[in-house]
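Researcher: Here's the sequence for the chain we discussed earlier.
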Amino acid sequence: MQSSRREFISKTAMVLAGTALVPRGVFAAAKNSSVLGIQLYSVRDDMKTNPLGTLQQLAAMGYKNVEHANYGNRKFYGYSAKEFVKILNDLGMKMPSGHTVMGRNHWDGSKKDFTDAWKYTIEDAAICGQKFVISPWLDETLRTTYDGLISYMEVFNKSGELCKKSGMKFGYHNHNFEFSSKLNGEKVFDIMIKHTDPNLVAQQLDIGNMYGVGGRALEIVKSYPGRFELMHVKDEIASTVKGEMNDGYDSTVLGAGVVGVKAIIDEGKKTGGTTHFIIEQESYQKITAIESVKQDLEIMKKWGY
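Model: Thanks. This is the structure I predict for it:
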């Protein structure tokens, strides 16, 4: 139904009058509500040989946010939490999320408590200013039975409670087994998402990892509205060998593959609850990793991210 010009002007005047009462930061925050970053596993070899130089190159490209994939013995790429966050701050970068596998050794079932190793993980993540502590794997022994998987999802929720005490949220990142494996006739992914509290456990949907086993990210986002606060933005092409997930596909520069990335991330922003879009590319097809992620960033910016 169309409004007359007079009605349009009248309504517009009312809206403008109302905005005068709203704090200035509200609209700026709404306009720039999404976070664009890079998973440092994309440049893993460069980070191994020259982490500082690699971060400098990424910052020069225009990356403002990174997601780590290297934490052990209370070190990020060889630096303590305080040292690493200073490096990032000096480069004008932030690390809102990071990957550390939460394994069997992190939960003491007899004490019904996390071990010190996991508590240190949370502590160091908080020092670095993370908002999300993401486990990118689920040990095979924890998903052999339906009841066992549901039981461990309670540990996920408890990890969420622990993270919440430090102002963060626990999260999980999928590979492909979650979509190819079933327990009691139900996909592992569906079991996991249905038995985790969305207030405590965030889902980071890797839109590429699932492709080779028939998972279609666009359908998944629509099936679970509001559940995907983070996404790994990834495209896929047929591999000449086994592929990254042993399912015949490798990741590639965004827009060059078959995933349909733009439609998925737009849907994530529209209905998926997605605020963090993290670029990840693991294979490079005759160009360097650094050049690949530079092209990925340029494409995301062309797409309005």
